[in-house]
Design goal:
Blueprint lengths: L1 H6 L3 H8 L8 H7 L5 H41 L3 H13 L7 H13 L3 H13 L8 H13 L3 H13 L7 H13 L3 H16 L1
Length: 208
Amino acid sequence: MFKAQAQRPARPLLRKVSKLPGHQSHPLVGRLCNFGSGELAVRVQNRILKIICCVVLCLWCSCAIAQTRSIEELRQRAESGDAYAEELLGARYGIGSGVPKNIQESLRWLRKAATQGNAEAQFTLGLAYDDGSTVAAQDYPTAIRWYRMAANQGHAHAQYNLATMCEEGKGTPPNIAEAIKWYRAAAKQGEDRAIARLKTLTQLLTEK
């Protein structure tokens, strides 16, 4: 009776751990599960589990502290005017990575980076105004303006999106020649969608 009660604290947890995917690569778990059923065995199992939990907690805390320091350093760089840091911080606010999700803060930092010529920030702002869900209103002309800035710097995805808007006449009169120009630019960089669309347009124009 005493032994059955003493086994309860450790062995159910061990059984759960032993069933996790990949547990076979950790022989310690299997050894603990088969360690024995006596009172001494259970005490040893509990002691080892406590040590493992402490190690995991320490590692988690270390990662959390490192991430906090990383965010603080990134913010300092962004506040000093580093365009790359501004774009990264804006992206983090946009998805809530390491900081609370805040779309307005995200857009604020992205605009700072974009006005300094950061192509990734320009492209992201183009997406925001193209989609319209994170800004006051959908604004195709503004989207095109940001896409064009990034496209002129060789951003393949911006080139493709700009080509699509030129082809479909979003925010600008339809212009197939301009669309093909940007599809070609993106295709040269291996943008699969641009390659496919350029092939289709070429075939259509040839048939005409």
